[in-house]
Amino acid sequence: MRSGPTNSLTDVPGFLVGHATRAEPGWLTGTTVVLPPQGCPASVDVRGAAPGTRETDLLDPVNLVDRVDAVVLSGGSALGLSAADGVAKALLDDEIGWPVGQPGQVVPIVPAAVVFDLGRAGVWRHHPGPAEGRAAYADARAGAGRPVPQGCVGAGTGAKVGELRGGLGSASVVLDSGITVAAVVVVNAVGSAVDEQTGRLWSAPLAVDGELGPLRDPCAEDVRRAQERALALPDRVAGRPGLATTIGVVATDVALSKTQCRKMAGIAHDGLARAVRPVHTYLDGDTFFAMASGTHEHRPTLLELAVLMEAGADCVTRAVAHAVLAAESTDRTADGGGAWRSYRDAFPSAVATA
Fold first, then answer.
1. With helix as H, strand as E and coil as C, how does 146-213 read?
2. Is 205 exposed, middle or buried (0-12, 13-18, 19+ CB in 10 A)?
3. Cys-Cys with 162: which of 192, 238, 285, 315 at CB 3.0–4.6 Å?
4. What is the rounded distance in angstroms from the CA atom of residue 59 to the CA atom of residue 64?
5. Which residues pair with 341 in a beta bridge?
6. What are the tens digits of pLDDT across the range 254-284?
7. CA-CA distance, 217 to 194, in Å (whole number)?
């Protein structure tokens, strides 16, 4: 196995990813849209106890519609689900959707999931809506062939993970068969991506091709300072439900049925469990979608399917690492919001190049 050319979800041929980022004063949120090369089989697996989703029942394998036209990942908690309306109307303008009548009479199928980031810039009511959804859709169309922009962008703009800054990350792998598998993840968890006893990223051992750069174990002084800062935080353990959630998409170019996509989405959560602890809590709404374009000619055996789905989970783990390492420290306390250090600022010795 090796990572793809951009080591991101757009390594899966035909897939596009676009962002709408709102980080101006009073805002710290955004929307990300994933577009398949054409309507393709998809399903979903929800493990967190506080999810915010749209059209996930449609993706149950027993239900009729077996193809989706986009998947939306957004900030804004339940209010941010309205971003999917903008994506759906943009698809409608392009006459893309489930055919229900004469030419042009289509219904775009746009499942969505959200993370909680309300109030992190100091203004509770600021959340993504249809305008951000349409902007993310346009960004995806305009950015064909580019790597996925990562860090505090799109749906990861207002993310946090444990006591550190969260964000959006992506990773890919090309299997020996030539099949590509990839993931994009919005890391916004109650749990931590870091072993607080050592300062190491839980996800680091699964890195491939030196993708995390000269990452090393943090020095004892960095770890001590991080522990002291954590103990001093008044809200060390979030006591209110719904204030977190990690969401994402795993995708492949091999042909999978809707039922197989459901299994792939479920196994993707294993990758999250390797990167964030604790995971799937009552305070998270962890949700993963799986999409399969079927553009690759290889038809996997059952054993190859097992390898493919596990590779998708590993991509999720690696994407979490990329999100955390790409995140930047944020301080919105002057506006009534919060402040979070990035991993790089909390553990500078881990990422020092000299």
1. CCCCCECCHHHCCCEECCEECEEEEEEEECCCCCEEEEEEEECCCCECECCCCCCECCHHHCCCCCCC
2. exposed
3. 192
4. 9
5. 164
6. 999 999 999 999 999 999 999 999 999 999 9
7. 11
